[in-house]
Amino acid sequence: MTHPEAIRQVLVDDHEQYVKGEMPNDRLGSLLGDGLFLAEGDAWQRQRRAMQPAFFREQIEGYGESVVDHTRAVTDGWDDGETVAIDEVASTLTLRVLASTLLGIDAEAERETVRRAATAITQRYDTARLGSYLPEWLPTPTNRRYRRSLSDLHDLVDREVAARRSAGGQPGDLLSMLVAASDEGAIDDDTLRGNVVTFLFAGHETTALGLTYTLYLLATQPATQRRLRDRLDATLDGEPTPADLRNLPLLAAVIDESLRLYPPVYTFFREPTADVTLRGYRVPEGSVISLPQCVVHRDERWWDDPDSFNPDRWLGETDRPEYAYFPFGGGPRHCIGMRFARLELRLAVAVLLASFRFEAVTESLSRTASANAKPTEPVVLRVRKR
Ligand code: HEM
């Protein structure tokens, strides 16, 4: 389904007539259980309501300092002229930020448990790897690693939840909201664990890819990189804060444009629960409808010169239909982490450009369609100290 009007109809106007359906449930059901990503109807609504406060603007802005500190930490020790696999750095960074801000996990040993689980989950569901098509019960090395690391993660979550229950006062992060929801009987402990895994799955690699593609695009476009750095230098006084971001439309435009050209989530699915008509076509109940950002974001009907990286297209007025662009989905089930991801991406880029220039070593980016659209090879950049 590639017409923005039809996409809006499915995601917004008639959303009650659609479910996520077979495609995501087959692949992710045993991993995410009834967590927020896959739940439907009342069970979804209850969870979304319980977790939403962790993503309110004021709460998200409180995570800004952590993004800045973790970004500094992952670049500590970079030498002038060194080459770095930026996809790996981005992955480390987004996982640390997610674990510490949403789950309150900061200790190195615990972080390692989370990292192992996140890697195992990503590999288990990496459709570019043949093993991901084998059933979960087969004792392949990937499956064994996956089960062991998932069980370590569940233990860690159980310990953390027990500690929070006995401590009484809650820090107000996502895990607190989940514990409160479970104490009120809105979700059971399995769903609580399923949600921790849900957030590691939905929030980690997606944001890391967004950062990787943005830095790669800036590295291949030195003039845009220079212009953005000049804006940052002129606007910032010390470390960037969430409040500064309001005065940096070019930074937002660079991120928006990168998520347009290289949407980390390149397609997703819906199924109608009754026969529907979409732009004159009859679509029978239970059909799998694909909503492909990777096609719509480069459709010449809505985008001039769609394959070029041009942040300026975001800075003026436009009469483009709203759903010609939907990197975070849309309607009531839009990405709950959208504000979080956009804040993290902007702050991380601001911190990085304040200290470094980036040059592309990887000459052309080739991507593969896995759970997300990811690079087939490491994305290598050379860093120059300013
Ligand atoms: C650039 C980064 C990200 C992108 C491109 C992205 C994209 C998306 C998309 C397209 C959906 C809708 C899927 C559908 O309707 O079937 C979604 C849902 C979701 N995302 Fe994200 N996401 C990102 C970051 C995050 C982060 C940082 C988190 C958590 C902190 C997160 C958590 C979720 C969850 C839990 C859902 C399911 C929401 C629901 O069904 O109510 N995402 N995301």
From TrEMBL:
GO molecular-function term, one example from the UniProt record: heme binding
Domain of life where this protein originates: Archaea
Record keywords: Heme, Iron, Metal-binding, Monooxygenase, Oxidoreductase
Transmembrane segments: none
Key word Iron present: yes
EC numbers: 1.14.-.-
Family in the record: Belongs to the cytochrome P450 family.
Name used for this protein in its record: Cytochrome P450 119
Natural source organism: Halolamina pelagica
